[in-house]
Amino acid sequence: MAAKSKPSSRPRRTVVAPSRPPGDGAADAGPRRTGSRVIRETPPRAPVPAPTQPPSGKTAESRGKYVYCVIRSEDPLRFGAIGLGATPAEVHTVHYKDIAAVISDTPIEVLDATRENVLAHERVNEAVMRQHTVIPMSFGTVFKTRDDITELLKGAYGAFTDVLLKMEDKVEFGLKVLWDRDEVIKQIEREDEDVRQLKGEIASQTGPTYFARVQYGRLVESALQNRSERYVSEIFELLRDVSVASRANKPIGDKMIMNAAFLVARDRESAFDAKVKAIGAKYDHLTFRYTGPWPPYNFVNIRLKLERAKPGE
User: Fold this and answer.
1) What are the DSSP E strand ranges found in the chain?
2) What is the CATH number of the domain that holds 217?
């Protein structure tokens, strides 16, 4: 079980003007396109559901403990009724020495990764991370008892304290870079003499052009790959001085050339935001979409060996 998987909720898209810092109401202004094509995607905020009657037949013995994250804290903490459930569960801490798991009661069952559940998981992590450095847990992490959680904290105490120290006052931002593949091919045809010449030969031939078209396709694909790698390398390098670490993830689809996560110190968030906008202005033919701040999902890799609760046990 890894303490790192990020819930895949779909963010609400808002465009950030170059002069507008994050968090100052840009998300409420609606989508606006800037010349630099930098889009700040604000994570959706899950509203706390109105209280309802708890389901009948659920006894204390049938309820497990849902773990949202691990923090450093010696004092018992309560975060209110913001947890999972039709009736939002009270969120509080379970401790071992100077670390604590942030938990709520939940039925011992397999939780569906519905939009409501995933956003509730995120809602708690976001509330906690405002005041604490967090190690986010995978969605659906449920234990049977408080004692099981204490054993978890005890057994992985060294790993947890090490990661908490490394992640202290740091958050994650996700950055995706996209291009219009057809437009880039047109640029290549204008700028690459070999591609331009071969395209002209194909257009002027009256006989079979199969082999020429195959060669043209190979040249274009090679040029696309080289250009993509160059852009990605340059962007990573430009963001190096405003981030602590970075991680490249696999791009999704033909339009995405970069799918990365950056670990950023809290006091460097504004600098990171400004640098992304500056890079967007430099590469104005690319589209930059970034999200955050998130808990450091991509930079936490703790393997937890304690068996979790299973339905029916």
Assistant:
1) 12-15, 38-42, 63-72, 78-81, 90-96, 99-107, 135-136, 142-143, 170-178, 245-249, 256-265, 287-294
2) 3.30.70
